[in-house]
Design brief:
Main location: cytoplasm
Organism: Podargus strigoides (Tawny frogmouth)
Strand content: over 45%
Shape: globular
Subcellular location: Cytoplasm
Strand order of the largest sheet: 4-3-2-1-11-10-9-8-7
Number of strands: 11
Keywords: Cytoplasm, Lipid-binding, Transport
Number of helices: 2
Protein name: FABP6 protein
Mean pLDDT: 91
Order of helices and strands: EHHEEEEEEEEEE
Low-confidence stretches: none
Oligomer: single chain
Length: about 130
Amino acid sequence: QGNMAFTGKYEFEGDENYDDFVKTIGLPSDKIEMGRNCKIVTEVVQNGNDFTWTQHFPGGRTTTNTFTIGKEADMETMGGKKFKAIVKMEGGKIVADFPNYHHTAEISGGKLVEISTSSGIVYKRTSKKIA
């Protein structure tokens, strides 16, 4: 796998522990309903260590995080909170500490696999490559 391992468009395929996780991180109930089985399309542009990570939600809302591996970046959570984080690359996985959860993302078997952990609750989201 070369430098551009993450570049692509991925559509939500399935997840595990969604409800437990979003309650743990304190997402409001309207956002919980909105996000459940949401066909989020994640678009990743990787240029070496520079990433643009965009999530397109049904209904036209998008969230974009732009970051460089190893440097502090301004980020936004699922719930729209702004924060600063240093995104790392560990063993081919992107690793970031969000305010109330630890997040990893990797390409595995051609799919985008994202794992968020908070207070021992592990939320896994899998997205299939569509472009």
